[in-house]
Amino acid sequence: MKRFMFAVCFTILGLLLFPGIASARSEKTFSYSMTMIWNSCIRLIRVDMGLHIVEKDRKSGYILFEYNEVGMQSPASIEFIPEGKDGADGVKTLVTLAKLPSYVERKLLDRLDSKLLEEYGMPSLVPRSQNQAQQEKKDQPKDEKGAEKDKKKSPEDENEKEEENENEKEEEGETGK
What we know:
Elements: H1 2-17, E1 25-30, H2 34-48, E2 52-57, E3 62-69, E4 72-82, E5 91-97, H3 102-120, H4 130-139, H5 155-176
Antiparallel strand pairs: 1-5, 2-3, 3-4, 4-5
Helix pairs in contact: 2-3
């Protein structure tokens, strides 16, 4: 029983003293296209950081590399997961450094974020393809004459119509006298 209690106490103490040393993933969703993120990530790892890329597969969305910086070494991976249809809602990027604390993973994601901002400017939504835009236009409801119906009218449009109607009534009232 004493050994069991000693093991439990030792485990709890270890978790309290070294909370960040776990094989976890850090993730961030970027609002850039997959191409932009992929290219910046390759340049960051290979050119900026001088790290060795072990394997990469753009179609499958991953990069395997050896993280070796400031005396810290670890096998590492970055995965890219498009969000929404064809990445229309951004690309979730997962970083895993197996033997290092999670703050190193977050630091790598922050460096990628800075690189993307530096190279491409402020992020924007991934542009939809023309086919998607045309399909959405076809799906929009139409009235009897075949013209597209407005989904919602703004309050300003409503106010302008009311003012026009009032002006017409005033003009009719003046001509009727």
